[in-house]
Amino acid sequence: MKRVFFILLSATVVMSCSKGGGASAGKPGSKGELVPNGKSKSFVAERPYGMVAIPAGSYVMGLADQDFTNTPEKATLKTVTVSSFFMDETETTNAEYRVFINYVRDSVVRSLLAEAAGDGGSDGDGSSIGDFAYMSKKAGENKTAYQEFMESQGGRDGYDESKKLDWSVPLRWKTSEYPDAQYAEILESVYIPPAERINNERVIDTRKLLYSYSWEDIESAVKDKSRGAKYLKKESIAIYPDTTVWLKDFNYAYNEPLYDGYFWHSAYKNYPVVGVTWDQARAFCNFKSKLKSDYNESLKKKKQKAMAFRLPTEAEWEYAARGGKENATYPWGGPYLQDDRGCYLANFKPKRGNYIEDEKKGTYTYTAPVKQFPKNGFGLYDMAGNVAEWTESPYNNSTYQFASTLNPYLSNEAYKEPRKSVRGGSWKDVGYLLMTGYRDYERKDSARSYIGFRTVQDIPEGAAKFKKRTK
């Protein structure tokens, strides 16, 4: 009798648990099964503007053709595999890099104005310095709990929510439109002092254009089996290109017009940016990532966090340059530098003392606008000639010999290696240096009139397909 009573009691407990809301597993309607939240549709990678998708594949990495220079850095050939990624279809242009410059300039000015604005005020149209106050100051009683907490803590080391800038207020750059004397004092502080001006020309002091960001040295953290602040690397980079490279690289040539106007003149807006160091190129990649991340955060319907933009590894660059062709001497296949009509296929130095590919037109003595020469099989322009390009990889034999055959890259503390691999050849180089397998290098703190860069973005392995970016 006792046994029957115990069985009935147990059944009652089971039935009561199945009816109670707190004891069910999974979301409502899952019938006690383990059902993940969210819809189960496939992830589609959105193609960023100005980039093309490079499909995953394998190829023989290295210089298979004759090496006339007999350099010791020539490594043995080996087959490697590269994952898919997006890559800029052209080298980064002056116009694109100026967006970066203007962002840093505006950030510096807005930060100075916000510090002086105090608690804010006025109409928010820029007619008073108070309009440029930090967002948290303008919130007043409508501050979020997080904003109140951050202000009570006095901010924190790194990003400070309490010092978020209000980008909706327009800046006034014309001296006739300055709203008050305090605004004028702050704006004038970012220009070169009158005593240092040439011909009394009022220009921004580029020494104040510093871009600050941080990144994590993941490889060192994994090696030490630890995580923490000591692996957080903070950078503050002067990001204005070195325009003096046009004079320093060519001591006995008249390149003053390029020194004066190559970067800022509208005639050169679609030309590749030069005079940029490896560190500045990496800072640009961080800015590009931040720009996309900030946009996604501003949307009411949040998007998946975008993959970061970065410089390509040497293996990725060489694979992309070959355009899907096996044993491609040049991005167009090769082995010739001209097509069947006798037209040169890249911007380079075709003959001794001759820097012009088409003497009848008399064009492209130096760099050329992007997209002026045929693209390769992947849809990439100027993977040979025009300007050589920075890669993320250090320059040494171990890059080829000891790196993995799967996405090869020696990344552990690679940022400490002063020599960085540069690929593609440039407008001043002979045809041999344009070969897809040819390697060259430059010190990462050096800027040259013949070195630029382009960026890449990873495509998640789980992505179902690529999506064209909507206009």
TrEMBL record:
<feature type="region of interest" description="Disordered">
    <location>
        <begin position="19"/>
        <end position="38"/>
    </location>
</feature>
<dbReference type="GO" id="GO:0120147">
    <property type="term" value="F:formylglycine-generating oxidase activity"/>
</dbReference>
<keyword id="KW-0732">Signal</keyword>
<dbReference type="Pfam" id="PF03781">
    <property type="entry name" value="FGE-sulfatase"/>
</dbReference>
<feature type="domain" description="Sulfatase-modifying factor enzyme-like">
    <location>
        <begin position="50"/>
        <end position="456"/>
    </location>
</feature>
<dbReference type="InterPro" id="IPR042095">
    <property type="entry name" value="SUMF_sf"/>
</dbReference>
<dbReference type="InterPro" id="IPR051043">
    <property type="entry name" value="Sulfatase_Mod_Factor_Kinase"/>
</dbReference>
<keyword id="KW-0449">Lipoprotein</keyword>
<feature type="signal peptide">
    <location>
        <begin position="1"/>
        <end position="16"/>
    </location>
</feature>
<protein>
    <submittedName>
        <fullName>Gliding motility lipoprotein GldK</fullName>
    </submittedName>
</protein>
<dbReference type="InterPro" id="IPR019866">
    <property type="entry name" value="Glid_motil-assoc_lipo_GldK"/>
</dbReference>
<dbReference type="InterPro" id="IPR016187">
    <property type="entry name" value="CTDL_fold"/>
</dbReference>
<dbReference type="InterPro" id="IPR005532">
    <property type="entry name" value="SUMF_dom"/>
</dbReference>
